[in-house]
Amino acid sequence: MTEILLIRRAVRGDRASLERLIRLYYEKIYNYICFQTRDPNIAEDLTQDVFLKLVRNIHSYVPTASFSSYLYKIAHNTIIDYFRTARPTEEIHENQIVSDSLAAVEAKITVQGLLTRLSEEQRECMILYYMQELTYREIAQILDIPIPTAKSRVQRGLTACKKMMEEKI
To answer: What gap in Å lies between CA 164 and CA 167, rounded to an integer?
Structure first.
């Protein structure tokens, strides 16, 4: 079944279609939130919140933007709300280290370290573009910014990361 058909059915109240949409996007949204919060437990909670908001508001979805942009917009707003009310820790939890290989952990630490040194706007655009593989158009829709702004934030973020990497060498 195509995504468009699933969305139409979910909007009309078909629970099975809604569940399939959630399964289709759950991991992507979780990964996006996890990169932003750097805490798997918080990411799990916020991902649940995103899909709860989706379930409550699926009837308001208007296909002017892609469904993934609509969902990432909900995730983006959920993250903003979270950071307004809580200060997450910057540490990497033991369960992450146990589950990943040492090389993967080192790479993750390096990437997270670089991303934390970027501006919030650049970091979010970099995560959406490189890790979530969204287009500049989708990023612009999610963040309510012009497409050229999304593109320049990604390019400036990449330039800054390259410069930081060269300084370490």
So the answer is: 5
